[in-house]
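We treat protein structure as text, and this decision shapes the records that our systems exchange. Because each token names a local backbone shape, the row as a whole describes the fold. For reference, a complete record is included directly beneath this paragraph.
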Amino acid sequence: MTRQVLRLAAYGLCIVDGRMLLARYVSPDGTQRHWTLPGGKVEHGEDPFDAVVREVAEETGYAVEVERLLGIDSRNHHADWLGPFGGELHSVGVFYAVTIIGGSLRNERGGSTDLAAWIPATEVEQLERTVVIDIARNMYRNRPATGHVEPVAVGGLLRH
């Protein structure tokens, strides 16, 4: 039987002076690193609104407030890591625009990221990155009234 997993995550898009706040994901075995938005898994019983505030603080050191909901992305794909035969992963991402209200930039210790940085928006395209960055940028640019945009092509980008 194929394993089916639902993953709910919340992400914060923060843009200041043409720079985007990003965090560098590190795989559990330390062999993979790529850029992503600050954010991650919504814990059981946690509201995604609260999860994004917690995740941004954990991964970047900044206290943030949510400005607005950008939208929700839902995608399915096969994940080899879901058991001996892999499985089907249904990822639901809740994307928010966030504003810094306190704290200072620092790297996460002992978590899923190892580096937090402000990256010029003009340089993001050249980064090895997860698709969540492109999804959030698309939502931010288009500001869909329904919160739904056409799926962003994964192509050569990493999934997260």
